[in-house]
Design a protein that fits this description.
By secondary structure, the chain is α/β, with parallel strands linked by helices. It folds into two domains: about 120 residues, Rossmann fold (3-Layer(aba) Sandwich); about 280 residues, P-loop containing nucleotide triphosphate hydrolases (Rossmann fold, 3-Layer(aba) Sandwich), CATH 3.40.50. The chain is about 45% helix and about 15% strand. The strands form two sheets. An eight-stranded mixed β-sheet has the order 8-9-7-10-6-11-12-13, with helices on both faces. Strand 8 and strand 9 form a beta hairpin. The C terminus is likely disordered.
Amino acid sequence: MTTGVLLALTGPEEAELVSLLDAPGTGVQVVRRCADVPEVLAAGLAGLGSLAVLSAELPGLDRPVLRQLAGSGVRTVLVAAEDDADRCRALGATTVTWEAAGAAEWARVVAELAGSEPAVVAAPAPPVPTAEDIGDAAGRVAVVWGPRGSPGRTTVAVNLAQELSERGEVLLVDADTEAPSVTQVLGVLDETAGLAAAARLAGDGRLDAESLRGLTRRLKRGPRLLTGLTRADRWRELPAASLDVVWERARELAGWTVLDVGAGIDDPVGGLTSGIAPRRHQAALSALGAADVVVVVGAGEPVGMHRLVMALQELTESGVTAPHAQRVVVVNRVRGSATGASPEQAVVESLARFAGVSAPVLVPDDRPALDRAVLRGATLAEVAPGSRARTALRDLAERVAGPAAESRAGRRRRRTPGRVLRAGRTGAG
């Protein structure tokens, strides 16, 4: 069986490579000589070839492009200068060969790749971390997610990051592509999209921990902040292939990374990895896939509780979270005027009955303190340290940080990935 090869090379050796690949008995055949990246993508998505040989210096060649080709079943060989090796490996190509090696060596690499099984060809990009790897890593990721309807995800994310910052370095990231609002809540006058800039560097294979640090800003007496999109219609600037790298660099930068994400995860199963086209909720899907802890936030009133129960079911059925990820359920703005004379008991009983959640974190609706915090662009710890809402969010930080450290030690002892934990159970958050 002959393997179809797509070529897009900028040097004069392309003609020699065509002759070598098309020679009798090679098992490969050049089916398209492409002029640029869009033509390579079009040919790959059309199924014209299963291998692509590309110059690393092609304009527009980045990690998302290689993810799209991989999603279409096209393995890639990058021809690069040796001093560009690290960047090219970070792009996620199947293999990298060197310009100076010449066309004969390139042909040998292509023939070897064509003769191997796709499932056993290892890409030089960093592998997806296992539960064991994440357990041993310095940094951990907490994703604050919840149903639509403004249950207070950003308020929880901002204050959780503040409380965790008492334990060490924390990075707060606004990864909400539907209604980004962290800068407004914190009173940050910043019109730059730091996360988009980080995604661009990651897509080009140039993001490291120090360059990520340079894109953040230190909040007063609190975490570092990586600002989000300035408009929701810029969501295409945050491809999942690039964000996967951003989260890994964030682990190197901070002990905890808190991601505030949008509610949508209703892309088709497999949409994150298929790479055929950008997905509207790819940022949330990427974040949830990288999470060590998922904080699910719902509102403490009848409609909010119904949405929370449905969201928990959706999150479980979607399978977007990693097997090791813990789940903490937070019910925000709990108040008697919406749920009756015993609001805490009503919330706990409802979640236990309809969602199997036995230990939610309940945040009282302390509206005066929260309004004062937003007015001053600060957190509850700064403007209302004695607030009941602040106490509950401090307890949330204890819940997030405590079980995470305990489970990390347990995974090192067992040397096996953790099991999926039920939402809100004691010991799992």
